[in-house]
Amino acid sequence: MKIQIKKFGTILSSRPAGREAALVMKSTLRPGPREKVELDFSGVLAVGPSWLDEVLTSLQNDFGKERVICLPTDNLSVIESLKIIDATHRPSP
């Protein structure tokens, strides 16, 4: 199941907006038991780590981390936001 992120705007930055977007996504998603939830960032200009963290965490809590994936993108704000999220969610040594 593919989610077009641009439906939520082209500049996505705040945690409250991410929380709201996640609630909207979850209210409309009905993926099958093994179906992936794919986030497509085509047409999005910028994504902040707070917005993306809120969406990913919420979707992963409901559908599982292995089922929620970000489709490949050349959008640097998405790439860098994912790096920041990954670094903050990594366990401390």
Strand content: 15-25%
Terminal residue distance: 36 Å
- Give Rg in angstroms: 13 Å
Q: Determine the number of helices (DSSP H or I, runs of at least 4 residues).
A: 3
Task: Give the biggest sheet.
Answer: 3 strands, parallel
Order of helices and strands: EEHEEHEH
Query: Strands of the biggest beta sheet: in what spatial order?
Result: 1-3-5
Show the helix and strand layout.
Elements: E1 2-4, E2 11-12, H1 15-28, E3 37-40, E4 46-47, H2 49-63, E5 68-70, H3 76-89
Parallel strand pairs: 1-3, 2-4, 3-5
Helix pairs in contact: 1-2, 2-3
Describe the 3D structure.
The chain has 93 residues and is of the alpha/beta class. It has one domain. The chain is 46% helix and 15% strand. It has a three-stranded parallel β-sheet with strand order 1-3-5. Strands 2-4 form a two-stranded parallel sheet. Helix 1 packs parallel to helix 2 and helix 2 packs across helix 3. It is globular. The mean pLDDT is 94.
Task: Write a brief caption for the model.
This protein has 93 residues and is of the alpha/beta class. The protein has helices at 15-28, 49-63, 76-89; strands at 2-4, 11-12, 37-40, 46-47, 68-70. The longest helix is centred in the middle third of the chain and has 15 residues, at 49-63.
